[in-house]
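Please review this one:
***
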Amino acid sequence: MNIMDFNVKKLAADAGTFLSRAVQFTEEKLGQAEKTELDAHLENLLSKAECTKIWTEKIMKQTEVLLQPNPNARIEEFVYEKLDRKAPSRINNPELLGQYMIDAGTEFGPGTAYGNALIKCGETQKRIGTADRELIQTSALNFLTPLRNFIEGDYKTIAKERKLLQNKRLDLDAAKTRLKKAKAAETRASIWAEEVTKSEQELRITQSEFDRQAEITRLLLEGISSTHAHHLRCLNDFVEAQMTYYAQCYQYMLDLQKQLGSFPSNYCNNNQTSVAPVPSASPNVIGSSALTSTSGLVMTSPSNLIDLKESSGSRKARVLYDYDAANSSELSLLADEVITVFSVVGMDSDWLMGERGNQKGRVPITYLELLN
């Protein structure tokens, strides 16, 4: 029975406190009650914490979109995370594309130029898919997790203490209001003297509790600077993970481009003109002027090459890159070897006739550097 009485009294006291805060808050909004302002330093800390929370949420959500563009996959991962279960592994887009290319190349025949090229492209896409998976895992661990821990941990604690500070401030101002009314009534009736004493005691208590809560909140908010320093380290880790990922992808594509250099870009239509393969752009490629093709690859159109094609003479040329002949009409090349080249009437502008000893064949001009 005593416990029930205690619970009822506590419930009544809590209800009274809540009502008092509600009345104080309403009167403040209506301009009918005074409000204790927080000091400027504390206000700045509160503003900094709120700004940090807003931008951390935006950066975190957009990073998740960047790493996983599929919204359904993100929802599934979120559900599994809340259930504290590991999400099932799924094939990503580069891996799926790579598998399709490999299957298509196998269907067309690995012995054909197109089939072989598809298989090589598919293998590269699968390697990119693996690198993409590693980027997601590293970024989630070193970047997203610390940001999420701040939002769901540190900031929730700050918000809780901030709300508590707001309640203590309302209690303080309500006590000030009651004391002010008691003193005004005391001048008219001596019976209010006891109420004034009670209100003064209540004010001292609420002031002490407010000051204590303000200090607790201030200490928590001053930790935001440490949070920024920690997030900066996490950001460096994220940038490093991206740098590793893009460097891997660049190297994979560079290797693929070299492998595809041995395949003519169109071979299946005999009525179409052969196009010479284009190696990586280099400042030493034939001549001085360069034209950028619509695919972003650098093509050369040098004046000395034009002179050579218009003349019937021959020139020495140094080979810049290895080249595997696609058929018997072409000549295989080794980097840094010197061969003789000359033009043949009617030959495509991207090709020259190359000669090495008794061997002759067409060679792509982008693989050559004419020698004086």
Summary: The chain has two domains: 33-262, 315-370.
